[in-house]
Design goal:
Elements (H helix, E strand, L loop, with lengths): L19 H4 L22 E2 L6 E3 L7 E5 L7 E8 L2 E2 L7 E3 L9 E9 L2 E7 L9 E2 L1 E2 L3 E3 L8 E4 L3 E2 L4 E8 L2 E2 L7 E2 L10 E8 L3 E2 L1 E4 L18 E3 L8 E4 L8 E8 L2 E4 L3 E2 L10 E8 L6 E4 L18 E3 L7 E5 L8 E8 L2 E2 L7 E3 L8 E9 L6 E4 L3 E2 L3 E2 L7 E3 L7 E5 L9 E8 L2 E2 L7 E3 L9 E8 L3 E2 L1 E4 L17 E3 L7 E5 L8 E8 L2 E2 L8 E2 L9 E8 L6 E4 L17 E4 L7 E5 L5 E6 L4 E7 L4 E4 L5 E5 L4 E3 L9 E2 L3 E4 L7 E5 L10 E5 L10 E4 L5 E5 L4 E5 L3 E3 L2
Parallel strand pairs: 1-8, 9-18, 35-42
Antiparallel strand pairs: 2-3, 3-6, 4-5, 4-7, 7-8, 10-13, 11-12, 12-16, 14-15, 14-17, 17-19, 20-21, 21-24, 22-23, 22-25, 25-26, 27-28, 28-31, 29-30, 29-32, 32-33, 32-34, 36-37, 37-40, 38-39, 38-41, 41-43, 44-45, 45-48, 46-47, 46-49, 49-50, 51-56, 52-55, 52-57, 53-54, 53-56, 58-65, 59-64, 60-63, ...
C-alpha cells in the first residue's frame, strides 16, 4: 500500500497540500499472502495506521495552516477546522488561510479517513496557540525634489506587503510634524529655512499591526529664489511737480517692495511714487525696487534712467475775480481761485490800465481818483522750479461812494427861550467827511441858523426845533440826516412869587393862601404840608387844621402851570406851631347842655380840686372830683353840666403829649396821654389815703358804667392797652415794659 495526499477543493487548487511524507516518514505495509482456500471467503478490515493529526504553520493573520498526517495513501480524507471548538464555516480543505476574524481564537483540525479495507478513523489535532495579528512589510519611503523655500518636494510611500495595505503620509520639518501636510507633496516655507525635511508613512490593514516607516532627511532647506524679478519702469513725465510712478512688473512669487528714488547717488524718495521738486530741476532721476519675501533671497532691480527733470507747469491758472461793490470808499477783494499746484501769489491793481502805486495786496480800497475809471487786478503765481504765470481779472467801473456811516444828529440843551441848543452830529465815516448844519422851526428853515448851535428866541415859543446835518466828501454822494424834533419850546414865568399862609394857627380853624401876582397868569395846584410832609388829600386852596396838626408847623406848595411855560413850584415859609382848640368853658357854674355847652368829650386843665356833675332836670347823672387832669363826656340827653375848680374845659380832639409816667391824680387816654404798656406803682402817695386806679369804660362816670379798679396798699402792676381810659388817685405810675 502507498500513502497519497488529498487534493484541495476547486478554487484552492493553486496550492497543493504538502505530502504527508514531507513531514513524516512514509510507512510501508507488506501485503500478506492469502491462502488459496480463502479466496472465496469474506474480506477482513483493519484500523488506519499512523499518528494523530497535527496543525502545521504559524497561527497569525496572513499565514496558511496545514493539516499534517502520516496515514496510508489512497484514503479518502475529509477535514473540519474549528476555532475555539466551533467549526469554521466553509473551511474543509487540508489548508486554512488565517483571517482577521480568527484573531484571539485557538484552532484545531479534525481529519476523517476512509478507505477500502480500513475502518474509518477520526483524528483531531491539538489546539494551536492563540491567533495573533499579522505583520506588514514595507520598503523605506523616498523624497524627490530640491529642499528650497517655494520648491515642491514629492514623497513615494515605498513597496508594501500585503500590497493592498492602506498608507498615510506625514511631513516633518526637523522633529516636528507639519500641520495638515499629509499629501504626497510639500512646499517648504520661510520658517523651514535651515531645517531638514522627512516624510513618515504609516501602513494599516485589517488584522495587521500598524507599521510606520521614515524617509532619509533632505538637505537643509535653503532660501527660495524669485522665479521672475523684472526691472521696474517709470511712468510719468520727469517735470517739477509732476508725479512719477515706479511700475514693478510681475514678480513670482509675489513680493513686498521697497523703493529708492535717486538723484545721482542721493536717495530723494522711498515711496512707490515721487514728485520732483525744484531741487531736482535739470537732474536725472532713477528708481531701484527691492523685492522681499519671507524665506526668499531679496533681489534689487533698477529702472533705466529717464530724461533730466524739466521746469514745472501750473496745471490750473484761474482768472481772478473781484468781490465788493465798485464804489469809492469800498474795499475790493481779489479772489485768485485755486492754483494747482499751490503758488505764491502777488497782486497788482490797475486804474485804466495803469498800475496803481502801492496797490499790491489782495484788497484795495477805491479812492476818489478811481471815480468813473476801470479797475482791474493782475495775480502772478510763482513756485520754486515752476514757470511763473499771470492772470488778470475783468474790469469794473467805479461809481461815487456812499458815506458808510451817517448818523442821525441829536439835539442837546434845554428847550426854553433864551437857552442854547447844540447839534450833535455823531461820527461820520469815512474820515474827512465835512458836516454842515441847518436849523428848522416847525419844519421851516430859520434864517441864518447854520451853525452847530442855536439860541432859542421868543419866536420859537410853542414850536418844535429840528436840525439837519449834511455830510460831504470828494468822490462821495452827499447825504443829509434830520434829527428828531425837540419838545415844544417853553418859557419861564416872568413873575412867580412865593405864597404865604394866612389864618389862625389853632386846631379847628381854616388856613388860606396869598398867591401874589404871577406873569402870565397860570393855573394853580396846591399841596399842604405839616412839618414839611405832604398832608394826604390837602390839595385845595384852603385847609382846616385838625387834631393831627397840633404842635406842627404848616406850609403850602403852589404849582403854576400854563401851556408853553415851564411848570413852576413855589413853597411858602413854615408857620408857627398849631395851637390847641379854643376852650369851651373858662369859668365855674351851671351850663345848659346844647346852648351853653355842646355835647361831646372834654378835658380840663385841672385846678386845686376839680368837681363836675352831669345833671338831668331832677337828678345827678354822673360826677367826679379830684386833682389833676379830668375828662368828661357830655351826652345830648344831659340837661346841665356843672363845673367848679376845674379851670378851662377844652373839646377833646385826641391831642396830647405821650408820657411814660402818670401824675399822682388824673384821668387819661392811653395812646394820647400815656404810652401803652406795663406800669407799676409803689402804693399810695399819702399813706393816710388809699391808692385807687380804675379802667373806665367811658367818661360818663354814671353808676351804670362798668369799670375795672383796684386799691393797692403797696406795689402793684397793671397793663394799659392803646385806647383805654385810665383813672388814678393818690398813686403815681411808671411804665416798665
Amino acid at each position: 500500500m502507498s500513502v497519497t495526499t488529498a487534493t484541495r477543493s476547486v478554487g484552492r487548487s493553486v496550492r497543493r497540500s504538502v505530502a504527508v511524507s514531507a513531514a513524516f516518514a512514509v510507512l510501508s505495509v507488506p501485503v500478506l499472502a492469502q491462502p488459496a482456500s480463502a479466496v472465496d471467503a469474506a474480506p477482513t478490515t483493519i484500523s488506519i495506521p499512523g499518528s494523530e493529526a497535527v496543525v502545521v504553520g504559524t497561527p497569525a493573520v496572513g499565514q496558511v495552516l496545514t493539516a499534517g498526517l502520516d496515514w496510508p495513501e489512497g484514503l479518502t480524507l475529509t477535514y473540519e477546522w474549528d476555532a475555539d471548538g466551533v467549526p469554521v464555516e466553509d473551511e474543509t480543505d487540508a489548508d486554512l488561510d488565517v483571517v482577521p476574524a480568527l484573531i484571539g481564537a485557538t484552532l484545531t483540525v479534525t481529519v476523517t479517513g476512509n478507505g477500502t479495507g480500513y475502518d474509518e478513523r477520526v483524528s483531531t489535532s491539538e489546539p494551536t496557540e492563540v491567533v495573533v495579528p499579522g505583520t506588514l512589510q514595507a520598503t523605506a519611503p523616498g523624497i524627490t525634489g530640491t529642499a528650497r523655500v517655494g520648491s515642491t518636494l514629492t514623497a513615494s510611500a515605498g513597496a508594501w506587503t500585503p500590497a493592498d495595505a492602506a498608507t498615510s503620509l506625514q511631513w516633518y520639518v526637523g522633529a516636528d510634524p507639519v500641520a495638515d501636510a499629509t499629501g504626497s507633496t510639500f512646499v517648504p516655507r520661510a520658517a523651514d529655512v535651515g531645517a531638514v525635511v522627512t516624510v513618515r508613512v504609516q501602513g494599516t490593514r485589517d488584522g495587521y499591526n500598524l507599521l510606520e516607516t521614515s524617509s532619509l532627511p533632505t538637505a537643509a532647506v535653503a532660501r527660495g529664489a524669485f522665479i521672475s524679478a523684472p526691472a521696474p519702469t517709470v511712468s510719468g513725465t520727469p517735470r517739477v511737480g509732476s508725479e512719477l510712478t515706479a511700475v514693478t512688473g510681475t514678480w513670482l512669487p509675489a513680493a513686498t517692495f521697497t523703493y529708492a528714488w535717486k538723484s545721482g547717488t542721493t536717495v530723494v524718495g522711498t515711496a512707490s511714487t515721487f514728485t520732483p521738486t525744484s531741487a531736482e530741476l535739470a537732474k536725472t532721476i532713477t528708481v531701484s525696487v527691492t523685492g522681499a519675501r519671507d524665506g526668499y533671497t531679496s533681489a534689487t532691480r533698477t529702472a533705466t534712467a529717464n530724461a533730466a527733470v524739466a521746469s514745472g507747469r501750473f496745471t490750473t491758472v484761474p482768472v481772478p475775480t473781484l468781490t465788493g461793490t465798485p464804489r469809492v470808499g469800498v474795499r475790493l477783494t481779489a479772489v485768485p481761485g485755486t492754483w494747482a499746484p499751490t503758488a505764491t501769489l502777488a497782486y497788482q491793481w490797475y486804474r485804466a490800465g495803469v498800475a496803481i502805486t502801492g496797490a499790491t495786496s489782495s484788497t484795495y480800497v477805491l479812492t476818489a481818483s478811481d471815480l468813473s475809471k476801470v479797475v482791474t487786478v493782475t495775480v502772478k503765481g510763482t513756485r520754486s522750479g515752476f514757470t511763473a504765470r499771470s492772470a488778470t481779472s475783468a474790469g469794473v467801473t467805479v461809481a461815487a461812494g456812499h458815506l458808510s456811516t451817517a448818523p442821525v444828529p441829536t439835539i442837546t440843551g434845554t428847550v426854553r427861550v433864551g437857552q442854547k441848543l447844540t447839534a450833535v452830529p455823531g461820527t461820520w465815516a469815512p474820515a474827512g467827511t465835512t458836516i454842515s448844519y441847518r436849523w428848522y422851526r416847525n419844519g421851516v428853515a430859520i434864517s441864518g441858523a447854520t451853525l452847530s448851535t442855536y439860541t432859542l428866541v421868543a419866536a420859537d415859543l410853542g414850536t418844535k426845533i429840528t436840525v439837519v446835518t449834511t455830510g460831504r466828501k470828494t468822490g462821495y454822494t452827499s447825504l443829509a440826516r434830520t434829527s428828531a424834533a425837540t419838545a415844544t419850546v417853553v418859557s419861564n414865568f416872568a413873575s412867580a412869587p412865593v405864597p404865604t399862609v394866612t389864618g389862625t394857627l389853632r386846631v379847628g380853624y381854616t388856613l388860606g393862601i396869598t398867591l401874589g401876582t404871577w406873569t402870565p397868569a397860570p393855573a394853580f395846584s396846591y399841596q399842604w404840608q405839616a412839618n414839611g410832609s405832604a398832608i394826604s388829600g390837602a390839595t385845595s386852596s384852603t385847609y382846616k387844621l385838625t387834631a393831627k396838626d397840633y404842635g406842627k408847623t404848616i406850609s403850602v406848595s403852589v404849582v403854576g402851570s400854563k401851556t408853553n411855560y415851564v411848570t413852576t413850584t413855589r413853597l411858602s415859609a413854615s408857620t408857627a406851631k398849631v395851637a390847641a382848640p379854643v376852650p369851651a368853658l373858662t369859668t365855674d357854674g351851671l351850663f345848659a347842655v346844647g346852648s351853653q355847652i355842646k355835647p361831646g368829650t372834654y378835658v380840663s386843665s385841672g385846678g386845686s380840686i376839680c368837681y363836675w356833675e352831669r345833671d338831668s332836670a331832677t337828678d345827678i347823672l354822673g360826677r367826679d372830683a379830684g386833682y389833676g387832669q379830668r375828662m368828661v363826656t357830655i351826652l345830648s340827653t344831659d340837661t346841665y353840666f356843672y363845673t367848679d375848680g376845674c379851670g378851662r374845659w377844652t373839646k377833646y380832639v385826641g391831642i396830647g403829649s405821650l408820657s411814660s409816667s402818670s401824675p399822682v391824680d388824673g384821668v387819661f387816654v392811653v395812646g394820647v396821654h400815656l404810652k401803652p404798656g406795663v406800669y407799676t406803682t409803689t402804693g399810695p402817695a399819702d399813706p393816710a389815703h388809699t391808692c385807687l386806679w380804675i379802667k373806665l369804660s367811658s367818661f360818663n362816670f354814671g353808676p351804670q358804667d362798668p369799670v375795672i379798679y383796684g386799691e393797692p396798699s403797696g406795689t402793684s402792676t397793671i397793663t394799659l392797652a392803646d385806647g383805654q381810659r385810665f383813672y388814678t388817685q393818690n398813686c403815681s405810675w411808671k411804665r416798665i415794659g
